[in-house]
């Protein structure tokens, strides 16, 4: 009889070995191959030799009809008698079924409403895959070709992630059956048996690598072994677990877990320290295809999946990959004001559209982003992967370029700024992220919130990324602790030092300001849309002994450790303030310059003022006006109103309508130097969103969007951007021109797909006016119910 050896194929798949596919972890290639071949045969059509052998000798080359393809290896057992020709007889299909244990089907119990998804807090993901969190058990059913006999049969699960899975690196996991689960390890136990079906309880350690795993089941007994073929529908996604006390990202407050993991919308703050605005952002971490997109971003980093079990590594990878200068990451930054080749950063109102485009275009950076867009995407990715994350805004945020831990301003002999030397800057606001984790790589006490910044400002170890930096280390000036703590410290607590050029070309420190950086550090409050001030987490109260000690500690490690001069007596102070919510776009801007003379004698002050249009990053664009005024200051306050007319700034504004007033001067009698800089912005109007009628899942509804142009000029080529999770996918509306001071409205129709309270976000953008947006809460009812409709509109530029 013709005898063929049993075929054993690699469980890794034929075409995915050793390379990254276009989607995730090498699964796509197997999927395509399986579509092209009859699943019940598990044999390629082109293998004519094997088909011929089946016809000639079906007992040697059997054809199986299992629900799941199974690889079979026969084992010669003791006591078998040879046939008449000296060879052992080969069993047929029926005999194989009786002696081998083969997998017929696998049920991962992956329903969104089932115990696996709800107990793992993954029921919100719009995916049909099994999504679980590490350090927690899950259940699954396996149907076999015959009843499982624990005394003679062996069975184990085989999980693989990454392009080249290795047991020693934790990317190839072999899960044995055990009599009793012990926890904190990969293990499985049979908890129920029904004829040919067994129910397994499977446990993973709290240190498992996160990602997408291929699953196969392998069986063995004295007659041979069998292995199920990989089916992409049975891939398992494993995430970080903030509900597990043994996980590094564990967070003990359920309210905070609901906010920082499960909330798919949020508020991002912008403006200036005196004029704080807010806009709603759709994080959308549970939207369809977003989990796959987030893992795609990780894959594009080129880092080894073996390091993806450590959240410190993961957040640093995401910090680098959300920007694009050196690794073709998600977003291309643009602060030029020209966004004609892409989307203006102010148009975006959520992360889903950005991540989907990046994934769809196989890793081509999306145009364009600025700090709040980078931070919004980081929040989406990290929450999606299971790391508690929030979006944070720092007002008056310093950008230290020379590791001096000071913000330096250089003036010439006439106290005029020397623009080419003033490379340090103070951004009106800067947005980054805090993420929550223990820090076993740092001394005790440095776990908790960690700052992570994806905006490409300075390189860290050769890559544009920043963090994670412990907020505790930042607060105490421990800038020698990793990662990038010095840079974050300078952003929130550096002193601003003024230097004047001498006749010989050297510079002398003439003044310092100690309370102007790191103001009103803000994030969305837990469980509400209110603003939460978290400045105290980043630094001690300004001017306190603890705060000064932290500054001195930090600066002793900086490049200008000896730059501080002893404080000098001052009897004249200078302050710039604004009343109320501040000036509005299209109106004159009015501020107040206050000089206070605390001495008993008159003081003469020569004041120089300069107002400039600024990028929100603190970079100078253009000077609008300069003035020089001589003031006699009696022993009391002297308030000088200062105004900037609309005609002076109307043609020079950029994205954020940001301006800076620089005031400097000298007291004639004492030669005391006065200097300050005051950033302000021109407030933009809100979009008014009015739902029309009742909102019901699956039924068409309408909203009316209203807007009034605040400018005495025509807005050209106006674009509206509309989106809402569970309401409608992002869409762009090319509206056209809007006349001077004109009021317009438009109606949009859509069909809600998810019930509950949903947020509809709308933004307006054009060359003449940006940062115009609005949000409306829409309560969507299930189709079978008919309660009264409720809605509320939240102002997009709330002031605090």
From TrEMBL:
Keyword Membrane included in the entry's annotation: yes
EC number: 2.3.2.13
Purpose of the protein: Catalyzes the cross-linking of proteins and the conjugation of polyamines to proteins. Responsible for cross-linking epidermal proteins during formation of the stratum corneum. Involved in cell proliferation.
Protein name as annotated: Protein-glutamine gamma-glutamyltransferase K
Subunit structure, interactors included: Interacts with PLAAT4.
Residues binding Ca(2+), per UniProt: 493, 495, 542, 547
Cofactor annotation comment: Binds 1 Ca(2+) ion per subunit.
Protein family: Belongs to the transglutaminase superfamily. Transglutaminase family.
Phosphoprotein in keyword set: yes
Cofactor(s) for this UniProt protein: Ca(2+)
GO BP annotation list: keratinization; nervous system development
Principal subcellular localization: membrane
Stretches the record annotates as Disordered: 20-43, 74-93
Catalytic reactions on record: L-glutaminyl-[protein] + L-lysyl-[protein] = [protein]-L-lysyl-N(6)-5-L-glutamyl-[protein] + NH4(+)
Residue span(s) of domain Transglutaminase-like: 363-456
Organism, scientific name: Astatotilapia calliptera (Eastern happy)
InterPro entries: Ig-like_fold, Ig_E-set, Papain-like_cys_pep_sf, Transglutaminase, Transglutaminase-like, Transglutaminase-like_sf, Transglutaminase_animal, Transglutaminase_AS
Subcellular location: Membrane
């Amino acid at each position: 009889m013709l005898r063929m050896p049993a075929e054993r194929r690699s469980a890794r798949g034929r075409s995915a070995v050793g390379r990254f596919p276009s989607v995730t972890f090498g699964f796509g290639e197997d999927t395509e191959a399986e579509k092209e071949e009859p699943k019940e045969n598990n044999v390629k059509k082109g293998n004519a030799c094997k088909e011929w052998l089946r016809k000639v000798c079906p007992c040697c080359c059997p054809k199986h009809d299992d629900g799941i393809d199974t690889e079979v290896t026969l084992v010669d057992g003791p006591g078998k008698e040879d046939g008449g020709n000296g060879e052992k007889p080969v069993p047929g299909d029926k005999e194989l079924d009786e002696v081998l244990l083969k997998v017929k089907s696998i049920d991962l119990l992956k329903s969104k409403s089932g115990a696996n998804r709800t107990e793992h807090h993954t029921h919100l993901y719009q995916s049909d895959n099994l999504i679980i969190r590490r350090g927690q058990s899950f259940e699954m059913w396996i149907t076999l070709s015959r009843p499982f006999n624990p005394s003679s049969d062996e069975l184990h699960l085989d999980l693989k992630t990454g392009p080249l899975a290795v047991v020693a690196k934790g990317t190839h996991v072999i899960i044995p059956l055990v009599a009793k689960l012990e926890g904190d390890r990969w293990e499985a136990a049979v908890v129920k048996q029904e004829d040919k079906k067994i129910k397994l309880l499977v446990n993973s350690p709290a240190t498992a690598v996160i990602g997408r795993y291929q699953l196969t089941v392998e069986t063995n007994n004295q007659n041979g072994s069998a292995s199920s073929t990989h089916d992409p529908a049975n891939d398992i996604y494993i995430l970080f677990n903030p509900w597990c006390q043994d996980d590094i990202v564990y967070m003990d407050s359920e309210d905070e877990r609901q906010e920082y993991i499960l909330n798919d919308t949020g508020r991002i703050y912008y403006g200036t320290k005196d004029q704080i605005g807010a806009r709603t952002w759709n994080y959308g971490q549970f939207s369809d295809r977003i989990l796959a997109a987030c893992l795609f971003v990780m894959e594009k980093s080129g880092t080894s999946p073996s390091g993806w079990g450590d959240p410190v590594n993961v957040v640093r990878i995401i910090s680098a990959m959300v920007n694009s200068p050196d690794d073709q990451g998600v977003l291309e930054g643009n602060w030029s004001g020209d966004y004609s080749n892409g989307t203006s950063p102010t148009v975006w109102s959520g992360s889903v559209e950005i991540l989907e485009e990046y994934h769809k275009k196989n890793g081509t950076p999306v145009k364009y982003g600025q700090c709040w867009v980078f931070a919004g995407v980081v929040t989406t990715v990290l929450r999606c992967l299971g790391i508690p994350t929030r979006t944070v805004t720092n007002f008056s945020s310093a950008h230290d370029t020379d590791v001096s831990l000071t913000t330096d301003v250089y003036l010439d002999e006439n106290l005029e700024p020397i623009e080419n030397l003033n490379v340090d800057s103070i951004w009106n606001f800067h947005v980054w992220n805090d993420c929550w984790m223990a820090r076993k790589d740092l001394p005790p006490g440095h776990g908790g919130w960690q700052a992570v910044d994806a905006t490409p400002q300075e390189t860290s170890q050769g890559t544009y990324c920043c963090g994670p930096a412990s907020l505790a280390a930042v607060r105490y000036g421990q800038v020698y602790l990793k990662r990038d703590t010095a840079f974050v410290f300078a952003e929130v607590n550096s002193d601003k030092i003024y230097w004047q050029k001498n006749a010989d070309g050297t510079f002398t420190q003439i003044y310092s300001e100690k309370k102007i950086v790191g103001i009103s550090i803000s994030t969305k409050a837990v469980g509400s849309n209110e603003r939460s001030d978290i400045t105290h987490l980043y630094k001690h109260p300004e001017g306190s002994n603890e705060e000064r000690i932290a500054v001195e500690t930090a600066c002793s490690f900086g490049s200008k450790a000896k730059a501080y001069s002893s404080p000098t007596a001052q009897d004249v102070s200078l302050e710039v303030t604004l009343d109320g919510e501040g000036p509005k776009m299209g109106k004159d801007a009015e501020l107040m310059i206050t000089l206070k003379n605390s001495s008993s004698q008159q003081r003469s002050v020569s004041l120089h003022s300069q107002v400039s249009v600024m990028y929100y990053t603190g970079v100078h664009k253009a000077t609008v006006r300069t003035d020089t005024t001589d003031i006699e200051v009696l022993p009391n306050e002297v308030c000088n109103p200062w105004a900037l007319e609309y005609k002076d700034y109307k043609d020079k504004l950029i994205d954020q309508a940001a301006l800076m007033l620089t005031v400097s001067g000298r007291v004639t009698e004492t030669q005391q130097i006065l200097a300050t800089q005051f950033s302000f912005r021109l407030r933009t109007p809100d979009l008014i969103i009015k739902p029309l009628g009742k909102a019901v899942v699956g039924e068409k509804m309408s909203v009316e969007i209203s807007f009034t142009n605040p400018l005495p000029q025509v807005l050209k080529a106006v674009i509206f951007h509309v989106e809402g999770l569970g309401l409608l996918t992002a869409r762009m509306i090319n509206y056209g021109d809007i006349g001077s001071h004109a009021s317009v409205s438009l109606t949009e129709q859509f069909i809600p797909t998810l019930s509950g309270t949903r947020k509809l976000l709308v933004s307006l953008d054009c060359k003449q006016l940006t940062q115009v947006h609005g949000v409306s809460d829409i309560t969507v009812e299930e189709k079978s119910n008919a309660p009264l409709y409720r809605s509320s509109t939240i102002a997009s530029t709330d002031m605090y």
